[in-house]
Design goal:
Layout lengths: L1 E9 L4 E8 L8 H15 L5 E7 L3 H9 L3 E12 L2 E11 H6 L5
The structure holds coenzyme A (COA).
Coenzyme A binds next to strand 2, helix 1, strand 3 and helix 2.
Length: 108
Amino acid sequence: MGGVVCWYIHKENRNAEVGHWLGSASTEHGLATRGGKAVLEYLFEVHDLHRIKMQCGVANVASRAVAERCGLTQEGTGRESHWITDGFVDHVLYSILAKEWAANPPVM
Ligand SMILES: CC(C)(COP(=O)(O)OP(=O)(O)OC[C@H]1O[C@@H](n2cnc3c(N)ncnc32)[C@H](O)[C@@H]1OP(=O)(O)O)[C@@H](O)C(=O)NCCC(=O)NCCS
């Protein structure tokens, strides 16, 4: 159906980056959001991380909505930060801190 990936864990800084995708038959059921929340919970609680980030294409409304439903805060925009299909695309950086997750754990 798709996946939520943790691209890396930086152990020294206790941070990580996650991303998500779904096949077209599996969108609009809340699966990316549920998967994203589950991965955040796992990374904060099992790996004791401090900060987790997501980067979403500026025009990728669906992806940005997943980040926001998972409780991440928009920080800024990375200019032409990712190669998508046939060109570089600006991406919005989102993040969530462990204390924010603990204070307001999203409903699964
Ligand atoms: C980004 C992507 C995963 C988002 O998929 P999505 O289906 O919009 O996200 P979710 O799985 O969280 O589903 C949320 C949608 O399901 C709807 N929904 C329907 N039934 C639901 C239910 N039972 N529970 C929760 N949400 C439900 C929600 O209302 C929401 O739709 P809305 O935004 O129109 O309100 C998908 O568009 C995708 O794979 N795109 C291509 C890859 C990509 O761009 N990846 C990100 C790279 S930056």
